[in-house]
Amino acid sequence: MTTIVILNWNGAQMMRRYLPSVVENSGSAEIVVADNASTDDSLQVLATEFPTVRVVTLDRNWGFADGYNKAFAKYETENKAQGLPLPDYYILLNSDVRVEQGWLDAMTNYMDANADVAACQPKLLSDTEPSRFEYAGACGGFLDKYGYPYCRGRLFDTVEEDHGQYDTVADVLWATGACLMIRRTDFWEVGGLDGRFFAHNEEIDICWRLNLMAKRVVCVPQSVAYHLGGGTLPQGNPRKTYLNFRNNLTMLYKNLPANRLRKVMLVRMILDYVAALQMLILGGGWSDFKAVVKARRDFKRWRKDFSAERKRIQGQAKVTMPTTVSLFSILWKYYAMRKRKYSNL
User: What distance in Å separates the CA atoms of residue 222 and residue 224, rounded to the nearest whole number?
Assistant: First the structure.
């Protein structure tokens, strides 16, 4: 049994545009919209236009990460009270994702056949340019040695066209939160998403924790989904810059082994301030510069709040460092060696 959960916040128009494809093409999977206390007409739209979709309402906007934690917990409480079964799999699906008939089959079949796989994603293509991968996850994600994410099909802002070059199932470090299929038991076993992140990097963090527990995360490109992207916080938004930098540093602190942590954090301090200066001079200006500086300052302030969790994660880890965390610097490969495609790395 699979339950698709779409987290919504003031996304009535997105649901009108994208939810019909999910309803029509998801077979017997249950579809749930978890509403993060929307102030638009989302609940009315769901009630009148999508009566078969189950709604779970939350008391406030908990963000992406804790929104899903709260939604899953409330959904399961309601099911138990009504004597309803709990799903084998959850799918975290963004409200701006379009799917086609059969999209679930390949992922479900692969998960059913491989008990060591905890999570997976489809091939993610751009809804506005379907011949091209979508930035948020492409064909599965990795991290370089300093914590910079990249994907099969996307390195930094260079997004490849899809010519079937990544159509093999592959183990990855992280699966995109835009369309993430995860075993319900594994989701709770590793502690769910880190609600303190609010949004951004939370899917990388949970997938890294799964990897450390010797559980696999894969991309199953025989399944395809189309993502609009940037619906909540578009690229270049200072809030997004802040969350990405703060959460990425926090994720590194939680999951890196002791023998790599100090060096990586030192290098990142240098690289982050270089990035901030570059934004000030060449890019987003003063707002993005301040966002990076604030992110580093806030990470330093709240790092102690994660020390117990870091100790628990490292103490329970069955794998010291996943092979899907690269030993090279993607910055060096991309900017110095001019490698623009994953296949060239």
Answer: 6
